Amino acid sequence: MAANTHEGLYQGEKAVWLEAGPYEAAVLPEIGANLIAFRDTVKQYRFLHEPTAEEMESFKAKPVIHGIPVLFPPNRYEDGKFPWNGKVYSFPVNEPSTGNHLHGFLHYIPWAVESRSNSETEARVTLVQQVTESHPVYAYFPHAFTIRLHYTLSAAGLQQQVTIRNDGKDAMPCLLAFHTSINAPFAEGSTASDCMFTMTIGQRWELSGRMLPTGRFQPLKPEEERMQRGGVSPYFEAMDNHYTAVPQNGRNRMELTDTRLNVKLVYDVGTAYKQWMIWNNNAGGRFFCPEPQVNLVNAPNVQLPAEEIGLHALEPGAIWEASSRLYTIEA
């Protein structure tokens, strides 16, 4: 059957559906361009943590722990302050428990569907967010820019390409992450005890009581060393941890293995992402979030070299881009 792209609904919300090979996926343009579903319809795998019908209202109010939310700029900023090129931007403090700003401005607002298409083998959709002086985000992040998300579904899995173009006259900070929420287990009949994962982490950043990096590293626990090689349960303990990313064999990735079925889900995020976050909902046993991140948490407030912490400046007219892919292989 040829690949297909069409408009439809997801739990009552406007969605663009992609179908190709054994896979289907759905993206929600009006809720932050969240890629909310990626499934193998033949084997009945659901790879992403999707909201149930009963969870839809809470999901819409806080759309960060389902699907693949876009975080721009990502994670936490101390007191909501973001110093940049001699100025200090003020973000709303939306995490009262830490007094920080959390997760940026693009994951809950509508995006435009720029194009959708399909061929015999691929289903494609492009979503765009264009920020100008009249855009509500500009009041907090005073830069003109365009960010595009390109999703392509094929028998080779789900590819995501993101591009950010600086449309303004000044250099802008280019900080990005995805709060990707992975079901573990993803197969019917499997349990959390059937799940093992690896991730290309390097060193673990020490975090303060406000969940902000101190600039120092912590020794890895034995379980974290097994995250690097060999594998460990995604629920070996409650995690809300921050790591450097260290590619292995030229690739930066998370691999989740269902040991009962000998199937491996690969999340290959590319080497543009220099940091990882990982959060597992207090080791709840249902889903966890391996989050590829360009920058260190709170990077503008950390006194370390910009290149080391991913505090990148995108010059006027310049484009930053990266590609990721989700797919399965035999373990």
Can you put this structure into words, describing what you see?
There is one protein chain. With 331 residues, the protein is mainly β. The chain is built from three helices and 27 strands. The protein has helices spanning 56-61, 222-228, 306-309; strands at 4-10, 13-20, 23-28, 34-40, 45-46, 70-71, 76-78, 81-84, 87-90, 100-102, 112-118, 123-131, 145-154, 157-166, 172-173, 177-178, 182-183, 195-199, 201-207, 213-218, 240-245, 253-258, 263-268, 275-279, 287-293, 313-314, 319-330. The chain has an eight-stranded antiparallel β-sheet. Strand 22 (253-258) and strand 23 (263-268) form a beta hairpin. It starts with a strand and ends with a strand. The model has no long low-confidence stretch (mean pLDDT 97).
Query: How much helix, percentage-wise, in residues?
Result: under 10%
- Choose one word for the global shape: globular
Which radius of gyration do the C-alpha atoms yield? 19 Å
> Tally the helices: what do you get?
3
Strand content: over 45%
String of helices and strands: EEEEEHEEEEEEEEEEEEEEEHEEEEEHEE
Mean pLDDT: 97
Straight-line distance between termini:
27 Å
Which consecutive residue ranges, at least 5 long each, have pLDDT under 50? none
Biggest sheet, spatial arrangement of strands: 11-12-13-14-27-23-22-18
Report the count of strand segments.
Answer: 27
Largest sheet: 8 strands, antiparallel
Structural class: mainly beta
EC number: 5.1.3.3
Keywords: Isomerase
Protein name: Aldose 1-epimerase
GO molecular function: aldose 1-epimerase activity
